[in-house]
Amino acid sequence: MRGSPGGRSRSTRSRQSDGLTTVEFFTTTHRIVAQVQTGSRLLSDLMNDRSQSFVLVFNVRLSHLEKDAGLEAIASAAYLSKESLGFVMAPSKEIRKPERGRYTAYEREVLVTLPGFELQGRFLGPQRSDLWTFSPATLDPFFVLTAATARIAGAPDVTMGGDAILVNRDRLESICLGD
After folding, report:
1. Reduced to 3 states, what is the DSSP secondary structure of residue 179?
2. Which CATH class is domain 94-177?
3. Fold category of 8-87 in CATH
4. Which of 51, 106, 148, 178 has the fewest CB atoms inside 10 Å of its own CB, making it the most exposed?
């Protein structure tokens, strides 16, 4: 997980032939690489399903963010609390992106801060954004950043890149909107 001298590292995330999708989950202290059985649903739909507070994952590899990404645990299955996740890095084909329309016609660069992380990417939303645009009570629990990178705040040379990042609105500290 430690970044290369250029600062960017990339991992493998894909849909397997057995219906499992490999995804990276991040909490304030851990990186969890695991597979999710999505079936006919998209990962973003599973994460935004308010009827389930946990997500079941398989082939779990858990590592601590502060210990040079040394592997701490391997498990065949685990339940992850959605509310404890800061963000999820996933392949773009597993994400339902907002469609361009009357309320989501404007794409802009954003910098998002979460406990222990800084995320950069593109956000599709209304041209005039206000507090309600990012309110957890009015929208899905996770919003999408595309062409995104994540950086550990305490180790800015460590970055991870992905097609898409699902950001937990409840963990949001700040969001800085570009033009």
Report:
1. coil
2. mainly beta
3. SH3 type barrels. (2.30.30)
4. 51
Closest CA to 85 of 36, 29, 135: 29
Domain limits, the chain: 8-87, 94-177
Which amino acid belongs to residue 82?
A: K
DSSP per-residue codes, 122-165? EEEE-SS--GGGG-TTTS-SEEEEEEEEEEETTEEEEEEEEEEE
> pTM for this one?
0.82
* Cα–Cα distance for residue pair 95/88, rounded to 1 Å: 11
Which amino acid belongs to residue 8? R
Give 17-54 pLDDT, tens digit per residue.
Answer: 467 999 999 999 999 999 999 888 999 999 999 999 99
What are the tens digits of pLDDT across the range 133-176? Answer: 555 555 788 989 999 999 998 887 888 888 899 999 889 899 88
E strand spans, the chain: 8-9, 20-26, 30-37, 54-64, 71-81, 87-90, 106-114, 117-125, 142-152, 155-168, 174-177
